[in-house]
Amino acid sequence: MAYRAADEMAHIHLSNEKTHIRLSNEKAHIRLSNEYSELKKDPVPGVVAKPLDESLLLWGYVIRGAKDTPFDGGLYYGELEFTKDFPYIPPHILMYTPNGRFMPGERICVSISAFHPANWDPSWTVGAFLHCFANFMMFDEKGMGMGAIGSSAEQKRVFAKQSMLYNKTVCFDLFKIFLNSCSFFSRFQTIFFQFPLAA
Q1: Which of 52, 63, 110, 192 sits in a 20 to 30 Å window from 92, CA-based?
Q2: Which residues contact 182 (CB under 8 A, 6 or more apart)?
Q3: pLDDT digits (tens, 9 = 90+) for 36-84
């Protein structure tokens, strides 16, 4: 009887755990789906982002270098890694296009990323996250956490000029799939190239 009771308790515990995981997945999926819908209707100037798979837990993004910065003219491709616990846990962020600010392909430590979950507010949106990250990249040279690198303004300008060539060659598959799957790409082009990056 004792073994049977223990088995039943273990089964209940496992069932509750599966239910929690399923509900967490559903909540993250619903929230990220809504976030994507909002970004399509009201994109962040200088930034475009979209989910890369059906789970919605992996997103691609492109940031346009802001005018009057060494990044001007650059197009920087990267990814956001969400977990099933979003929006309670922030995403990790990576950038693949060489830029002189962050190490390509490595998770980047910023105060609102998964490296610092205590700083995160679940009400913050994907758009707000990317807006803050873009400004951190362009204007906060003192921020040097994990994944950050130092380089001169001239080096950053060289990377900016080479960014599209890099995206078309080394990052070609990721970048092409990302852009081709943007059903709102025509609208994105207008917003992306004509408006300054908000300060």
Answers
A1: 192
A2: 48, 50, 188
A3: 999 988 888 888 888 988 999 999 999 999 999 999 989 999 999 999 9
Q: Are 108 and 93 in contact (CB under 8 A)?
A: yes
Give the 3-state secondary structure of residue 149: coil
Cα 148 to Cα 151: distance, rounded to the nearest angstrom:
10
The answer to whether residues 162 and 98 touch, using CB atoms and an 8 Å cutoff, is yes
CB contact at 8 A, 143 and 136? yes
**Contact present, 95 and 113 (Cβ < 8 Å):** no
6-to-16, 17, 28, 196 alpha-carbon distances in Å: 15, 16, 33, 63
Q: Dihedrals φ, ψ of 141, to 5°?
A: -70, -15
- pTM for the model stands at 0.77
Domain boundaries, the chain: 2-194
Q: What is the pLDDT of residue 172?
A: 60
Interatomic CA distance for residues 132 and 160, integer angstroms: 20
Mean model confidence pLDDT for the chain:
81
Q: Active-site residue among 109, 132, 171, 182?
A: 109
SS3 of residue 152 by DSSP:
coil
3-state secondary structure of 73: coil
pLDDT at residue number 173: 64
Please tell me whether residue 90 adopts helix, strand or coil conformation: coil
Q: Does domain 2-194 have CATH number 3.10.110.10?
A: yes
Whether 171 is a known active-site residue: answer: no
